[in-house]
Write a structure and sequence with these properties.
The protein has two domains: 3-68, Chemotaxis Receptor Methyltransferase Cher, domain 1; 80-268, Vaccinia Virus protein VP39 (Rossmann fold). The chain is 39% helix and 17% strand. It has helices at residues 3-17, 26-39, 45-54, 58-68, 80-96, 114-124, 144-152, 157-161, 166-172, 184-187, 221-233, and strands spanning 102-107, 134-141, 154-155, 173-176, 179-182, 190-194, 207-212, 235-243, 256-258, 265-268.
C-alpha cells in the first residue's frame, strides 16, 4: 500500500466512523483490509482503494469500516461500572422514577453484546426491587456483523470465561455444542439497533443512563466534544453517563460533571439560570394642559 493510499483510507475511516489512525498503523490496516479485498474479488489493497475512489460502492465502504472497528468486549468489563450500576445508579433511578416506573438505558457501543447482557444479569438480581417496572435496554453499534452475534447471544468458551462469574454461566447460559447461549429472557431484555455515533441520535429519545465506554478513545478531540455534547442532550437531567476507564469529560465539555469521587461516572451539569436584570422603569410623561385642555 502506498502512502497516498493509506492517507486516503485514513481520511475515509475518520469521516465515516470517527476512527483516527496514526501514521504508524499501516500494518494494522493492511492486515484487516486484505481479507475484505479478497472477499470483494479484488487482487490487492491498491485495487480496493481504487474501487473506493472511483465507484459509489456503499457496501464495500461499510465492509472497510466494520473491518477496522475494534470490537473488544467481555462480560462485566472493568467491574467498577457495574458496581456503580448496582449500588448508585439503580437505587437513585428507582427513587426518582417512582411515578413513571420506567427506566431507559442505552449501551452506545455495544459490540457483541457482553455489556448490555451484563446489565441485564444485574437487573435479574434485582427482580424484587424492579417488579412492575419497565426497564428498556437499547444497544447500538456501528457494525452490523457484531450486532448479529449479539442478538444470537452465542459465545465461545473463551468469551464466557472472560469476566463472567461461573454462577452466572450456570444460571443464565445453555451449552449449544461448543458454544454457550444466553437465556432467551435475557436476550429479550435488550433491543439492538445499528447506529453510527457520528450521525444524529436525537430520535432515540431521552435516556436515564448511557453507557458509552471505550469508544471515545478512538476519536480526535473535536469529535469527542461533539459526541459528548450530543449525549448530554439525550441524557435526563437527573440521569447518568458511564465512560471507559481511559476516558473523561474533563477538558472537553462542561455538560457533565463527575459524580463524587466515582471515576468514570458522570451526571449532567445543570447550569443555574441566568439572573434576569430588571429593566429601569421608564419615566411617566407629565401631562401638560395646553389652551385649556384637560
Amino acid at each position: 500500500m502506498t502512502p497516498l493510499d493509506y492517507d486516503f483510507l485514513r481520511k475515509c475511516l475518520k469521516q465515516r466512523s470517527g476512527l483516527v489512525l496514526s501514521a504508524d498503523k499501516q500494518y494494522l490496516v493492511e492486515s484487516r483490509l486484505l481479507p475484505v479485498a479478497r472477499k470483494a474479488g479484488l487482487a490487492n489493497l491498491a485495487a480496493l482503494v481504487d474501487a473506493l475512489k472511483f465507484s459509489d460502492n456503499g457496501p464495500l465502504m461499510n465492509a472497510v469500516v466494520e473491518a477496522m472497528a475494534t470490537n473488544e468486549s467481555f462480560f462485566f468489563r472493568d467491574k467498577i461500572p457495574f458496581e456503580h450500576f448496582r449500588s448508585i445508579i439503580m437505587p437513585a433511578l428507582l427513587a426518582a422514577r417512582r411515578a413513571s416506573r420506567t427506566i431507559r438505558v442505552w449501551c452506545a457501543a455495544a459490540s457483541t453484546g457482553q455489556e448490555p447482557y451484563s446489565l441485564a444479569m444485574c437487573l435479574k438480581q434485582m427482580e424484587r426491587e424492579i417488579a412492575g417496572w419497565r426497564i428498556e435496554i437499547l444497544a447500538t453499534d456501528l457494525s452490523g456483523d457484531v450486532l448479529e452475534k449479539a442478538q444470537a447471544g452465542l459465545y465461545s468458551q473463551f468469551e464466557v470465561q472472560r469476566g463472567l462469574p461461573i454462577q452466572f454461566l450456570i444460571k443464565h447460559f445453555t451449552q449449544v455444542g461448543e458454544l454457550w447461549q444466553i437465556a432467551p429472557e435475557l436476550r429479550a431484555m435488550v433491543k439492538y439497533r445499528q447506529l453510527n455515533l457520528l450521525s444524529s441520535f436525537s430520535n432515540l429519545g431521552i435516556f436515564d443512563l448511557i453507557f458509552c465506554r471505550n469508544v471515545l478513545i478512538y476519536f480526535d478531540q473535536q469529535t469527542k466534544v461533539d459526541v459528548l455534547e450530543r449525549l448530554a442532550r439525550v441524557t435526563a437531567h437527573d440521569g447518568y453517563l458511564v465512560l471507559g476507564a481511559a476516558e473523561t469529560v474533563v477538558g472537553l465539555t462542561d455538560s457533565f460533571k463527575i459524580v463524587g469521587d466515582k471515576h468514570g461516572l458522570y451526571a449532567p451539569h445543570i447550569r443555574p439560570p441566568r439572573p434576569v436584570t430588571p429593566r429601569a422603569a421608564k419615566p411617566v410623561p407629565r401631562l401638560v394642559a395646553v389652551n385649556g385642555g384637560r
